[in-house]
Specification:
With 259 residues, the chain is of the alpha/beta class. Helices cover 47% and strands 14% of the residues. It contains 8 helices and 7 strands. The chain has a 7-stranded parallel beta sheet with strand order 3-2-1-4-5-6-7, sandwiched between helices. It is globular, with a radius of gyration of 18 Å. The two termini are 28 Å apart.
Length: 259
């Protein structure tokens, strides 16, 4: 399918690896030029070089922490005219409800709610002026089914979801859509690390830890960064102009919900 976005320009945050890279590659495959951001310059530059070579698109890199005002300012210097924004950032650490104080919540809100809102406020007005734009926020399955040990993430991402629900409907008339993409378990470096931690805690092998998690997924496997990216790219396409303020769950059926 021709996504109709060849020649558009996208900012993809936290895109040197994992799901962010999957989104960047899928957009590049559709002919979209990229502004790629990540904290680690070495991995970012290596990924950007691979994408340039594979897809022939223009790729600008900005090594910065998108969750900080300074990092966002550096990224926005290179991304003021983008047509597509993919918001992405790592989640806060797990824990129990008794572990978290005000400062822990402030950090979570800064990273996973206020940072994407700041980028939306900075970039969506230009999209509206040009009459076309797409915003996809990578959030979490926990928005649909909160995860007890991820209370900080549950709270911050739910706040972003509420903000998007109202904002998306205010800008849709100017040709700009804002939606959220909710990942379940995907085969990324982070999952390798989490499976290793589970294995160590339970005295089993990482393969056994992964198999146990996959058994709870109706699809019988982890998702891939490539199929996640393909879903993101469709949500950024000309075909998704009637998708407004939605939460798209991509978890292999693991979350049993009708809403």
């Amino acid at each position: 399918m021709d996504l109709g976005i060849k020649g558009k320009r996208a900012l993809v945050c936290a895109s040197s690896k994992g799901l962010g890279r999957g989104c960047a590659e899928a957009l590049a495959g559709a002919g979209v030029d990229l502004v790629m951001n990540a904290r680690g310059a070495e991995t970012l530059e290596a990924t950007a070089a691979e994408i340039r070579a594979a897809y022939g698109v223009d790729v600008v890199t900005v090594a910065a922490d998108i969750t900080t005002p300074e990092g966002r300012a550096a990224v926005l210097q290179k991304a003021q005219d983008v047509d597509i924004l993919v918001n992405n950032a790592g989640g806060p650490p797990p824990g129990m409800w008794t572990d978290w104080d005000r400062e822990d919540f402030i950090k979570a809100l800064d990273a996973n709610m206020l940072a994407p809102i700041a980028l939306i406020k900075a970039l969506v007005p230009g999209m509206m002026d040009r009459g076309w734009g797409r915003v996809v926020n990578i959030t979490s399955v926990s928005v649909k089914a909160p995860i007890a040990v991820l209370g900080l993430s549950n709270s911050a991402r739910a706040g972003l979801t509420g903000y998007v629900a109202g904002t998306a409907r205010q800008v849709a008339g100017q040709g700009v859509t804002i939606n959220n993409l909710l990942p379940g378990l995907h085969a990324t470096d982070r999952m390798v690390s989490l499976d290793a931690n589970t294995a160590a805690a339970q005295g089993i092998t990482p393969d056994e830890a992964r198999a146990a998690k996959e058994a709870a997924i109706p699809a019988g496997r982890y998702g891939t960064a490539q199929e996640f990216g393909a879903t993101c790219a469709f949500m950024c396409s000309v075909h998704a102009g009637f998708m407004v303020g939605q939460n798209v769950l991509l978890d292999g059926g693991a979350t049993n919900t009708v809403m």
